Amino acid sequence: MIIQLKKWLSVFLVFSPLLVFAQSPSLFPNFQSETLNINVFIPLPGKTEEVKLQPLLIKPSSPAPWSTIVLPSNCAGSDDKMWHFWVPELIKNNIAVVLLDSFKPRGFDSVCINALSRITIGSRLQDVHQVLDFLRADGRFQTGKIALGGHSAGAATAFQSSFAEVQKHLDRQPNNGYDAFVGAAATCEFSFKTPKLQGPLLLISGEKDDWTLAAPCEAEINRLKNASQDAAFISISGAYHTFSTTGVVWQPKLMKVPVNIPQMYLKKLSYETQKTIAELANGEELNINEVVKKYGGFLGSKLFGAHTGGEYDKAPQVVISTVDFLKKYGW
């Protein structure tokens, strides 16, 4: 059970347990696409890890330069089902889409089943920011109009990236992040203490999502709005984690963030999972393992059980909200 508790750190980036297929241009055969080749460098202690990412660019029919959104995957990697709802509508609105799978280049397909410790919060944040640098150096992508979004694990990455403070943690220059952010079914219990955004933020949660809870996201949006930040929250009525109201199933062994866990602010962002330090709202500082031991409950009793699956019947609402949000800011 102790091993299971340690695996609980996977809950902080979230997930939809789906089958995984290799990412390729055939993923969206009805659209013009291109595989990008981007070398990302992760500053591990004592060495630098080079990862060769191959995001898939889906191109609009309109001429470049394009307004763009980068969508890092949920835990299923290239089989992120939400991509298939987002891409057609975004392309129809002349917004280029970059689909990013951080897992396959590292030698695994998915992190849905107790495997998210394979890639740290810091590594995913480095991935998306170095992809941003690559896009900004390519004249086909409109400067000032590159957004970051995603579902579940991808949403958590977008949410965390929205904070201006993250640039300091990644040793980047201030004001060097994305221009807007969308998170659908994000895990919001991990954020940054300074309530200042890099750009406008939209979070969308399912009202009944008991895997990645809506309440912490709404609370974070309220904290940001109280600090005069451009932030918005949308609750999808009756929807669970996959934005489904039908076909959902109860999974008793599914690990999740416990209810009533306090908000945690990333104090030290390490590329070694167990060395990431969080400051709790009460000022207490704990590393990931200590958080697990303190809030996991007896034998991990608070860690398990949530609804998943479903028919994505509310996903079109997420897509419409995403496009409306981006259009509002000139995409």
Describe this structure in words.
By secondary structure, the protein is α/β, with parallel strands linked by helices. It is built from eight helices and 16 strands. It has helices spanning 2-7, 83-92, 121-136, 153-161, 166-169, 214-226, 288-295, 315-328, and strands spanning 32-35, 38-42, 49-53, 56-59, 66-72, 95-100, 141-151, 180-184, 190-191, 201-206, 231-236, 248-255, 264-268, 277-280, 285-287, 304-309. The strands form four sheets. The protein has an eight-stranded mixed sheet, sandwiched between helices. A four-stranded mixed sheet has the order 9-13-14-15. The chain starts with a helix and ends with a helix. Mean pLDDT is 89; it is low at 1-22.
Low-confidence stretches: 1-22
The residue fraction in helices comes out at: 10-25%
- Dominant shape: globular
What's the order of the H and E elements? HEEEEEHEHEHHEEEHEEEEEHEH
Q: What is the residue-averaged pLDDT?
A: 89
The main β sheet shows up as: 8 strands, mixed
Number of strands: 16
Number of helices: 8
Q: What structural class do helix, strand and pairing data support?
A: alpha/beta
